[in-house]
Amino acid sequence: MFSMFAAYPTFLVFLAVVISMVVTMALMPVWIRFLRSSHIGQQVRADGPQSHLVKQGTPTMGGVIMLVAVIACTLLIGAPTPEIWLLLGATVLTGLLGLVDDGSKVAHERSLGLTPKAKLVGQFAIATAFALAAVNVLGVEPTVTIPFVYTFDLGILTTVVPVAGGIAVPWLYLLFVNILLVGMCNAVNLTDGLDGLAAGSVMIVMLVMAAIAYRSDVLPSAIFAATLAGACVGFLWFNSYPADIFMGDTGSLALGMALGCLAVVTKTEFVSLIIGGLFVAEALSVMIQVLYYKKTKKRIFLMAPLHHHFEKKGWSETKVVVRFWIVSGVLAALGFSLYFAGSLVG
């Protein structure tokens, strides 16, 4: 449909943002009405900030519409290449895992859905399948580059399984990608605790990932990242404070997986940790809090994840969200600058 614009790849990326945003904004009101009529709402954690108790019952699973928009717009605007199918496959499968988790929360009327073990098993299975496909189908090199420092060859321990003409299993790279993808999944999920926080931060990060993919001459990935950014913008219209709907694990887990997969395809595994530095900080705050409490029975943060710590310090929810957006923007700009400078030198 958009083949007439094939000679204008920059316009295609811009178009992906706009159309994905419009589709999300058009479908979301219908989805919200359906969720309300079906009494499908968010279950708020009992030990969270008391100000969040008013969010109980707010429609959730907004990530379903975001994924619909991403799938439709990516396939409509971009060519259905193996790269696109792999990115969409990993993202949608993770979203379905989150959907089961969200459904479990609603059905049992509690803030905890699937067991942590069940979610991790599903995430690691998806991450492993994507990593093997990226190496064997897309030809992604099993290396990790720290710009201006060193490129680590994580393919030195590789086993070739004699199946379907031979499947290379680079064990060290496979382990690294699993940690990266599953870590990003749960980091974005942990960030999704305030109205607009995860959607706004992911939107910023995906715009930068689209620019990196475009610079790396992988247009399908740029379009995919752009549709994710557009879906986040459209979702923000309904998720801004006070939120009319939450994305749920359906959205947050899928967005985290998409970020990790884009990092692998564009060979920015290390730089993505800076670009998505806000998510990394949120995840680290939880890990540090848990480990420190187990050892000392004391807390470093007033509450984890990190955004709740600042709420406890007296910041309003909107102040935390806007300031975290700014931090996310600064880190994304820093990561892109590092990538760009490294690509020039390379």
* Number of strand elements: 4
Number of domains: 1
For the biggest sheet, the summary is:
2 strands, antiparallel
Order of helices and strands: HHHHEEEEHHHHHHHH
Overall structural class, as computed from helix and strand content, comes to mainly alpha
With strands numbered from the N-terminus, the spatial order across the biggest sheet is 1-2
How confident overall, as mean pLDDT?
91
GO molecular function, one term: transferase activity
Subcellular location: Cell membrane; Membrane
EC number: 2.7.8.13
Protein name: Phospho-N-acetylmuramoyl-pentapeptide-transferase
How would you describe the overall organization of this protein?
The structure is a single chain. The chain is mainly α and 346 residues long. The protein has one domain. 67% of the residues lie in helices and 5% in strands. It contains twelve helices and four strands, in the order ααααββββαααααααα. It has helices at residues 9-37, 63-77, 82-108, 116-136, 171-191, 197-215, 219-239, 248-265, 271-275, 277-296, 306-312, 317-345, and strands spanning 143-146, 150-153, 158-161, 167-170. A two-stranded antiparallel sheet has the order 1-2. Strands 3-4 form a two-stranded antiparallel sheet. A hairpin with a 5-residue loop joins strand 3 and strand 4 (167-170). Helix 2 packs antiparallel against helix 7 (219-239) and helix 5 packs across helix 10 (277-296). The longest helix is centred in the first third of the chain and has 29 residues, at 9-37. The protein starts with 8 loop residues before the first helix and ends with a helix. The model has no long low-confidence stretch (mean pLDDT 91).
